[in-house]
Amino acid sequence: MTEITDSTPDWERRFRAPRVSLPDWAEDAPARSLFVSNATGTYELYAWDRATGAQRQVTDRPNGTTDGVLSPDGASIWWFSDTDGDEFGIWMKQPFGGGEDVPAVPGLAPAYPAGLAIGRGGVCAVGRSTEDDGTTIHFVGPGEDAVPVEIYRHRQSAGVGDLSRDGTLIAIEHTEHGDAMHSALRVVGLDGATVAELDDTAAGTEELGLEVLGFAPVEGDTRLLVGHQRKGRWEPMIWDPATGEETALAIDLPGDVIAEWYPDGSGLLVAHSFKARGELWRYDLATGVLTPIETPAGSVSGATARPGGEVEYLWSSAALPPQVRSTAGGVVLDPPGAKAPESVPVEDAWVEGPGGLVHALVQRPPGASGPLPTVFEIHGGPTWHDSDSFAAGPAAWVDHGYAVVRVNYRGSTGYGRAWTDALKHRVGLIELEDIAAVRAWAVESGLADPEKLILAGGSWGGYLTLLGLGTQPDDWALGLAAVPVADYVTAYHDEIEALKAMDRTLLGGTPEEVPERFEASSPLTYVDAVRAPVYISAGVNDPRCPIRQVENYVDRLAARGAVHEVYRYDAGHGSLVVEERIKQVAKEIAFAAAHLGAPRGTSAAAAGEGGGPEAP
Question: Which string of DSSP letters, residue by residue, matches 521-578?
Answer without folding.
Answer: H-GGGGGGG--S-EEEEEETT-SSS-HHHHHHHHHHHHHTT--EEEEEESSBSB--BH
